[in-house]
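ok new one. same drill as before - C-alpha cells go in, u give me an amino acid for every spot. 232 of them this time. try not to just spam alanines like last time pls lmao
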C-alpha cells in the first residue's frame, strides 16, 4: 500500500496566520493529496501557502492556493519533507485544510527520468502521473509483501526505476497506447519490472538497499527497530 496518513493541517475555525507544524512521520511520505474547503470568504479573498521542512525550522514553499469564493480545491504535491504547515493571508473566512500523505516508491520525476521519452512526457496530465505512482506502489507491494514486512523503511534507485516503469505503463494505458508501436519500450519496462519483483517475491534476489519493517534481533533477545529515512 502507499501507506496513507490522514492529515489536518488547518482545522475549521483556526485563527492566526500560521498553522502548527504537522509531522508526517518521516520523509517516506513525499506525496500530499490536500483539500482546501472554504465555507465563507470576504472581499479580500483567501491566500494559503503550503510549506514543508526537514527540521521544523527552515521552511520551503510548496504551493499557494487562492480562494475567491466558497468551495473546494484539491491539489497533489510531491517532494514533501518531514514537516508540513500552512500560512495564510489576513482574511475573514471560514475554511480548513486537510488531506492525506502517501509514501510512493517513485515520483513523477522518476517516470520522466527512467521510463518516458521527453517528447511523450508532455502528453501525460500531471494528475494521471500522480495517480499512476500510487497504483504502481500498490502493485509493487503485492509482490514485495511475499518476502518483506511492509511498510518499507527505505529503498534505492532500483525499486524507484522499476516502480517508475510500472507507473509509466499505467499512465500510458489511460491516455491510449500503441503497445506494438512507439509505446513498446514503455511496456517492455513494465515486463522488466514485473520480472524483477517476481524474483524478490520468490526469494531469488534480496536487494540490500530495501529495508523493511522487520525488527532486528541482537544477542540476548533485545530487539532494535530500524527507522531509516528514505529521502527523495
Amino acid at each position: 500500500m502507499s501507506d496513507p496518513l490522514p492529515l489536518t493541517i488547518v482545522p475549521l475555525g483556526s485563527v492566526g496566520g500560521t498553522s502548527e507544524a504537522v509531522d508526517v512521520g518521516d520523509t517516506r511520505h513525499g506525496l500530499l493529496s490536500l483539500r482546501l474547503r472554504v465555507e465563507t470568504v470576504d472581499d479580500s479573498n483567501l491566500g494559503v501557502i503550503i510549506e514543508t521542512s526537514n527540521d521544523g525550522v527552515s521552511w520551503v514553499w510548496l504551493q499557494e492556493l487562492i480562494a475567491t469564493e466558497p468551495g473546494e480545491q484539491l491539489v497533489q504535491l510531491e517532494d514533501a519533507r518531514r514537516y508540513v504547515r500552512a500560512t495564510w493571508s489576513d482574511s475573514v473566512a471560514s475554511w480548513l485544510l486537510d488531506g492525506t500523505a502517501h509514501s510512493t516508491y517513485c515520483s513523477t520525476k522518476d517516470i520522466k527520468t527512467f521510463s518516458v521519452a521527453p517528447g511523450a512526457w508532455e502528453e501525460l496530465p500531471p494528475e494521471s502521473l500522480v495517480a499512476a505512482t500510487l497504483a504502481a506502489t500498490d502493485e509493487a507491494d503485492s509482490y514485495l509483501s511475499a518476502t518483506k514486512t511492509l511498510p518499507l523503511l527505505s529503498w534505492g534507485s532500483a525499486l524507484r526505476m522499476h516502480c517508475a516503469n510500472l507507473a509509466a505503463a499505467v499512465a500510458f494505458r489511460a491516455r491510449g497506447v500503441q503497445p506494438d508501436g512507439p509505446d513498446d519500450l514503455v511496456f517492455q519496462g513494465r515486463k522488466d519490472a514485473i520480472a524483477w519483483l517476481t524474483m524478490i517475491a520468490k526469494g531469488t534476489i534480496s536487494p540490500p538497499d530495501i529495508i523493511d519493517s522487520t525488527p532486528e534481533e541482537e544477542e540476548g533477545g533485545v530487539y532494535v527497530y530500524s527507522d531509516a529515512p528514505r529521502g527523495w
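The two ends are 18 Å apart (CA to CA). and btw Residues 126-144 form the longest helix (19 residues).
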